[in-house]
Amino acid sequence: MQLNSRPRKHLLEDDAALAADAAELHAALAELVRVYQFRDRDKICCHDISVTQCYALEALVEKGPMRSLALADQLMLDKSTTTRVIDALERKGYVERLPDETDARALSLRATRSGKSLYDAINRELIAQQAQMLRDLDAPTRAAAAAVIRRLARAAHARFVSGVSVGDCGPVCGPGKECG
């Protein structure tokens, strides 16, 4: 008994089409990510901070003060790496540690005025580059591109970051090991 009303042949064709689309998406995203990694490294490092430091500064500017552990979660880094990132930003005067408003024993991290200015300058430069790249696309295409990328980002976050399922790591980590 066939549960789906579509014949098995069409299901196999759909699977093949999905696999081909997935391979094409993988290649396109890999290329885009590589280009953006180099762009970010080249543009951001001109401001004497690393890309990771910029991500930390962005989180503190966009989301407001937070504790180190919350920032580590936001950056998807372990606590010791986050501490080194914050130490460097604090030495440069872009971040400060202040007593937490809800727990006097804890510290909150906050972007300083110069940290916010630096983030704004970097952000303006990166957005100007995006505008140049989008210049030749019509408005509906630009909107659709942003919508698709946001939807893919949400799906990837739900699937890979939030711990829904990353599957068996056998091919990478050895048989019987689970990722996540």
From TrEMBL:
Matching InterPro entries: HTH_MarR-typ, MarR/SlyA-like, WH-like_DNA-bd_sf, WH_DNA-bd_sf
Residue ranges of domain HTH marR-type in the record: 22-154
Signal peptide: none
Superkingdom of source: Bacteria
Matching PANTHER family: HTH-TYPE TRANSCRIPTIONAL REPRESSOR YETL (PTHR33164:SF43), TRANSCRIPTIONAL REGULATOR, MARR FAMILY (PTHR33164)
Protein name: MarR family transcriptional regulator
Organism from which the protein derives: Tahibacter amnicola
